[in-house]
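TEACHING EXERCISE
Course module: macromolecular assemblies
Task: Read the component lines below, then compare them to the predicted structure of the full complex.
Student: A.B.
Group: 4
Components provided:
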Amino acid sequence: MEAKEDKMLHKQHEPGDKVKLSTVKEEIEGILLESPEQGVYLIKLKSGYNIGIKKEDVHRLEIVGKKKEEKIASFKHSLNKNLKNIDLIVSGGTISSKVDYETGGVKSLTQPEELLQFYPELKEIVNVRKIISPFSKFSEDMDSLDWKEIAKIAVQSLNDEECEGVIITHGTDTLHYTSSALSFFLRDLNKPVVLTYSQRSSDRASSDAQLNLIAAAKMAVSEAAEVMIVGHASSSDDFCYAFRGTKVRKMHTSKRDAFKSINERPIAKIGEKIEFMNSFSPRDNSKKVKLDDKFNDKIALIKFYPGMDAEIIDYYSRYQGIIIEVAVLGHVAGDEARKNLIPVLRKAIDNGLVICAVPQTIYGRLNPLVYSAGRMLMKTGVIFLEDMLPETAFVKLGWVLGHKDWKVKIKEKMLENFSGEINSRIEK
Amino acid sequence: MEAKEDKMLHKQHEPGDKVKLSTVKEEIEGILLESPEQGVYLIKLKSGYNIGIKKEDVHRLEIVGKKKEEKIASFKHSLNKNLKNIDLIVSGGTISSKVDYETGGVKSLTQPEELLQFYPELKEIVNVRKIISPFSKFSEDMDSLDWKEIAKIAVQSLNDEECEGVIITHGTDTLHYTSSALSFFLRDLNKPVVLTYSQRSSDRASSDAQLNLIAAAKMAVSEAAEVMIVGHASSSDDFCYAFRGTKVRKMHTSKRDAFKSINERPIAKIGEKIEFMNSFSPRDNSKKVKLDDKFNDKIALIKFYPGMDAEIIDYYSRYQGIIIEVAVLGHVAGDEARKNLIPVLRKAIDNGLVICAVPQTIYGRLNPLVYSAGRMLMKTGVIFLEDMLPETAFVKLGWVLGHKDWKVKIKEKMLENFSGEINSRIEK
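Instructor-supplied answer key:
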């Protein structure tokens, strides 16, 4: 025993090995990373944190498990006739990433099929009929052209009678923008479209990807013909929620249950079974979904704050439309303020800029009638988007402005409830 | 009886009267408002909603109570020696408003003393030694000059040995900006500074002002020498929270418990007594508070979104500093994106613009080291503000840039924890 331990001590370890370090004070177990500092062991703990330990403090280093060799199983098209078929669109993000043992950060999987290799359980719930990966991007790099590309692929799958639903894996950064875009682009939706994610890369024991993917698979073959985000309902690994694509927002940088339903209940709770909690459009396999991905990119999303310069609104006059996150019930600085925004907003609207207001509070609904400030802003022609989320409103504005034939009814279209983006039942 | 009812029917009522309307379907009780439409009774319900009823559907209108005559008691300086003294700064907002029965909206009280008239209970908890009203504004019209004015008045009161604490009544729209500003402007704080608000005007039975004001008074004579917002902890009228001025945000347009603690627990729960829930600086009546209200207004608060044009960053180069609400752990579109923001950010920083990043998710902490996108953004010189709130970061940036002698240590100062604006203990 002693001899073997000696051999393992300070030797033969390489980045990626699972190791146990002993210092006078404690024992630390984790994955060894390449350390940027000499004289320091950098360890990725089970919690996901990295910790640096001075080599001189370590009196013993034991290799608990050797670095796993990367084996990429090729994707085999072996369908189980008792299960329903889904198509998987892999767009990138942490869920299609693994830890890079050289930097301690994460990097993309080289092949989308690797994802299935990490989650063999998925095959017991659904047949993954096809894996399509149009690109592999972290979601902060995506834009409306990527939304269109995903939408096009989804339409092909949804209109294929052998496919019962679609799962899209995606980075979390802009996931709720993409879910909004698909909610508007996919008209007459016939089957479930489920976006899912993970906050921890798939090769990590603490990854949240498995529960999310399995719940996503259950929703993808469910009765809800909705665009949904599926993810952890709490920080435990017990169940997931399915959120309506237009009523969900990333509300935490790193927690597993980062996504929250805003201004309505989630559509469903997904444990062993699915419990529906809110209304949804029912599946209709005989229908065909229609792609309507017209989009005008000359839009911006800005935020009102105290002391905001009126020239900022002037600057945005070069755009076709803007969403302003306004104060509370629907206010910006008015004629009692040193910097009155009302005249410049009126001028911009008179010159053709579409300006919509959403609540900066995120939760709740605009009600510009209560205060004179709101009534003043309303008179400029600003469109008050009820309880719509800023990000959803941004995407919807681009979509509405993309339709040239809607030019005379922009306000009407912004306030038409296309995909559950307005919940008229919540409190004013 | 019949005769009397006949007399009351469709007669003698005026806006402001409490009335009961009977239709075939229902009975409706509320305050009669001046209706913009002929042929319609406009009623303010107890819930605060306005409802319109066609006159032709009303078979009976009973006046339950006549409009209350406005009586303004003059403020009497009668101090109870068994109670502690506080000063009250009245800055405006709904809490100093009442329903305008002509529009159904709310308007400001004509004299700040009216506020005390609505809340006689306050006098059983503290002596209101002075009422100072520098201005009466809805908070969306306020800016940094107003913050300075409030701070100056607060300093005078706090450094007066006869005053144990300060209450500031304020509109909700930008309340958390003002609480941040006071948190930075008031150095070596000696006594409590409590901001409070209401979501419903003070003359309404359903007003939340009473509980908030009473809890504010308890905090103002407490041991916590902190700038705090005090308000409803839930939608019931049972208890309040005291939130740290730099760690609180308005998170709902209209609920009583609109303000939420972000990334830390509230400082205290205030029911009958005060239960402290978090750390605070202790009161020290022998200390003198110092005013440090230097402020640079050439700052802006912007938000990253998919497809954001790089020219927007160029535009903001005319400012001294900007806060960007970035995606999740600290990302913007990078070199994998069609519109790469990294070069323009680098250029702006090289030319002297201070750019700081805060999490768009509101909750959680930035951790730019996890992904290459974050590391890329870090290399441009963007300052990552940990778990700081966007609004707090905006105010802090103006304050730090206001100090010319800090010019060479802006990053250090932005990351120095002056007033609890950074909570290093929360999860990355």
